[in-house]
């Protein structure tokens, strides 16, 4: 399955939860998609939202419209718009958000700026989302392992 992290594999086949890649795309195009919206979408539409590009301005506009169209086709109310952050934290490879540092400390890992900069934006996005207080945090440590942060930390110590 494309762009689903290892720590997401327990729901990857059914796509019952919104994968990080889709969440990243939704934040990129400024859409708050409710879980009820996601559950109303047929599996093929969920897979489509996982596979569609969302990088260029044209991609972002097309992705946004596709989400609106897919939700409307299922009879759902229009997803809320989110303000677009012109400088989202996951694109900043030089500053680790406090929530990530704090969650790292809770699990006994002190992330360095060098480690953070080696991660790609989607990996940084995932760690930010997994470290937020509204999240269960159970996948934070598996994500660090998957992204090689723990191996990097072990080799530099």
Automatic annotation (TrEMBL):
InterPro entries: NarM. Pfam families: Nitr_red_assoc. This is Nitrate reductase maturation protein NarM.
């Amino acid at each position: 399955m494309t762009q689903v992290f290892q720590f997401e594999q327990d729901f990857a086949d059914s796509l019952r939860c919104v994968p990080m890649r889709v969440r990243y795309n939704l934040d990129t195009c400024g859409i708050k998609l409710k879980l009820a919206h996601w559950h109303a979408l047929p599996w093929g539409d969920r897979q489509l939202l996982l596979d569609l590009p969302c990088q260029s301005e044209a991609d972002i506009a097309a992705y946004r419209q596709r989400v609106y169209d897919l939700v409307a086709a299922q009879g759902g109310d229009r997803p809320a718009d989110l303000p677009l952050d012109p400088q989202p934290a996951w694109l900043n490879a030089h500053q680790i958000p406090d929530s990530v540092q704090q969650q790292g400390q809770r699990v006994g890992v002190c992330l360095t700026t060098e480690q953070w900069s080696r991660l790609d934006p989607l990996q940084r996005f995932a760690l930010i989302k997994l470290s937020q207080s509204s999240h269960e945090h159970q996948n934070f440590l598996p994500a660090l392992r998957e992204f090689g942060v723990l191996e990097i930390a072990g080799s530099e110590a």
